[in-house]
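User: quick one, fold this
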Amino acid sequence: MSDSVNAGELIALALKRSGVSHLFTLNGGHIWPVLTGAAEHGIRIVDVLHEQSAAFAAEGWAKVTREVGVAAVTAGPGVTNSTSALGQALGADSPLFVIGGRAPEARWGMGSLQEMDHVEVVRSLTKKALTLGSAEEAYSLAAECMRTALSRRTGPVFMDVPVDTLMLARRTCPRPPST
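Assistant:
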């Protein structure tokens, strides 16, 4: 890995270092950097035919393993298609992390493809819902989401990532935490 990595790879690195082995998804342009980062770090990508299937598969993974199930979905309907699984995870105390693509921050409010405020849609279905504000925060916020999903009372968390932020590079890769 080079010294310069994009936010998608940083998110994938945080997942890998948190013990994630599988990422459930429906491939979409808004999340490609996360998917390519996951592939580079040896996380198995399970590509399904519908976002709802991806989110429910991740929730099922969490139920069976008691690890965090992780799904990555594209913006707009990709996120709304994951809401039933978020609700199920909340009711079942399943540790679930859904990463949603989002319209570009630089074009927010201009009617970009699939532009909507996902955080407000999922807030009542999650322990925590947030938007990644910068590439510099990608690793730390993804790791925080993993910890939050596993903290008592376990449950779902959501982070959406504007596609332009996702592709931004950070100069250095964070070092693994010392144990």
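User: anything notable?
Assistant: The radius of gyration is 15 Å.
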